[in-house]
Amino acid sequence: QRRNIKRERKAIAKAGLTMKAWSGDEIPSALYSQMYAYYSDTCDKFGWWGSKYLTRDFFERLEDCYKHRVLFVSAHTEDGDYSQPDNPLGMSFCLYKGDLMYGRYWGSAEEIDCLHFNACYYTPIEWAIAHGIQTFDPGAGGRHKKRRGFPATPNHSLHRFYDERLKTILTRYINEVNTLEGEEIASINGGLPMKKTE
């Protein structure tokens, strides 16, 4: 996995890009609306599975109310001028508090080899280590996360069903589904590519 990760990291330089992490007061105003545009576009690609529930207003209000907890990672051409970062080629968005960081929404202007992994995992991990973050939860889904050192962890969710048929089905099968999900988590974590140490 180490060799594969090194290749993925080198792919960014090979594409003529550099990655930049922005937090707090250093985040340029333009990046809040740009992040919404990328988030929106990524959600749209997945249709109604995309779960587009954050609004442009949400992202724009982050600047006034929450910038002290925001981390943006952006990709730029190597000769990009970071003082004018209006058009990054891709971005990701994380939130942090204390020694915890949660992520990540992301999007890009075009498909670039390994940009997703660098924007969503490698650069945020670097930033987290440099800033004393002890736990980075990179978000739901994806077996590709285990190859990058993230164990699968169960999470809780709350739902309200307005269709009684769906509620009946869920109530009948939720325990079975939870058992199967637990087995899947154990299976994923059985193959983590890291040494166990005391």
Could you tell me the radius of gyration in angstroms? Answer: 19 Å
Q: What's the count of strands?
A: 5
Strand order of the largest sheet: 1-2-3-4-5
Mean pLDDT: 86
Overall, the morphology is globular
Secondary-structure element string: HEHHEEEHEH
| Computed structural class | alpha+beta
Q: DSSP helix count? A: 5
Flag low-confidence runs: none
Q: In whole angstroms, how far apart are the ends?
A: 22 Å
Q: Report the portion of residues in β strands.
A: 15-25%
Share of helix, binned: 40-55%
* Main pleated sheet: 5 strands, mixed
Short account of what is shown:
By secondary structure, this protein is α+β, with helices and mostly antiparallel strands.
Distinctive features:
198 residues; alpha+beta; 5-stranded mixed β-sheet; 5 helices
